[in-house]
From TrEMBL:
CDD domains associated with the record: HTH_XRE
Name of the protein in question: Helix-turn-helix domain protein
HTH cro/C1-type domain mapped to chain residues: 11-65
Organism phylogeny: Bacteria, Pseudomonadati, Pseudomonadota, Alphaproteobacteria, Rhodobacterales
Gene3D superfamilies: lambda repressor-like DNA-binding domains
Keyword terms of this UniProt record: DNA-binding, Transcription, Transcription regulation
Pfam families listed in its UniProt record: HTH_3, ScfRs
Keyword rRNA-binding: no
Amino acid sequence: MARDTLTGSRIRERRMIAGLRQADLARQVGISASYLNLIEHNRRRIGGKLLVNIATELGVEPSMLTEGAEAALIATLKEAAADAGAVAAEVDRAEEFAGRFPGWAEVLAQEHRRAGGLERTVETLSDRLTHDPHLAASLHEVLSTAAAIRSTASILAETGELEPEWRDRFHRNINQDAERLAESSKALVTYLDESDSSEERRGVPLEEAEAFIAAQGHHFPALEAGGAVGDQKLSGLSSSAAQTIAREMLSIYLADARAMPLADFMAAVERHGIDPLTLSREFHVDMPAVFRRLASLPQGALPQDVGLVVCDASGSILFRKSIPGFALPRYGESCPLWPLFTALNRPLVPIRRRVSQLGRTAGEFDCLAVSWPQEMPGFDRDPVYRSIMLILPVPAAQTGGEDAQPVGSSCRVCPRDACGARREPSILSQGF
């Protein structure tokens, strides 16, 4: 039986879970118990206001009654089959499997989600342990202090009689180093605890500024209305360096908003869609400005989320707006196959590539990139380039093509072995 004809069965199941009698639910939604009985036995179709009223009384979304949990379950099963790689799975029979063996289907889906979560954890921890500057500095402090204590203690233990003055001096050194070690260890534990419970990484000015921008949804209505950067409250930024970086980001935002007013820009997007080249010509701005403007629109303004990454000529990430399914390393070196870095070899030439990021939640994305000189160089100076990449998710109905370039997030957590751009072996075991 098709899923859309099982609405009544789902209503009955939800009613029984809620502990409601058939007569009670019928009275609450204003129909007779006999009519509800026909609905629950799939003998009467249901929709519109009655469906909404029943869903409200049962405390669920209407889609849970019309589609059930099977839709999400089947989608997860198909995703697990796609990630299996060489293992052949009967994808066209996923609905039958979920219907005949719902328990086993849920077990498989749960294990797939768990494996995906573990992979993301490995990516985060590897990236952080390798490249987090605050963590590296804290560990260096702890190890240096421990080495100093050991050196002083060995002198006291291995040397014979010492002058009282020197012995007291060594004792004072051990006491001071021990206090310093205790403080360093406490600070390190506090940093790890705060970092595990929050997405905001304190201690690195660029990360603080990014967290501030993200907390505002990458959109600032006051600046859209013509406000000044100095009037913007930089709440949550603890260091002057982070505040300086945030003000620079807001100055760029304000310049883009003045060049492309929100109402006019949204109207242009309605006419042309997400076409950066056409938009840049209409507003007489460069393409990086259009990329930034698209990434700073209010939530829901576009039919899809967009991501944004900016780097300099060294490959260092200067700004990032993440998007689900496309992993952006927080600290480490990113995948050199990203169009973001390819654009650095072809300044001022727009590049568009469809990529597929490897992993349990692999998705396809259209990546648009361009690099440009920060300022006009002199005859005796080389230009300083930056590169920007707009990340657009590809609808599921359009994925699966052979032209998508496989990319990773970074080499340490990329499962693709046969890659000419690999810098170091992956820490992921085969098949993880």
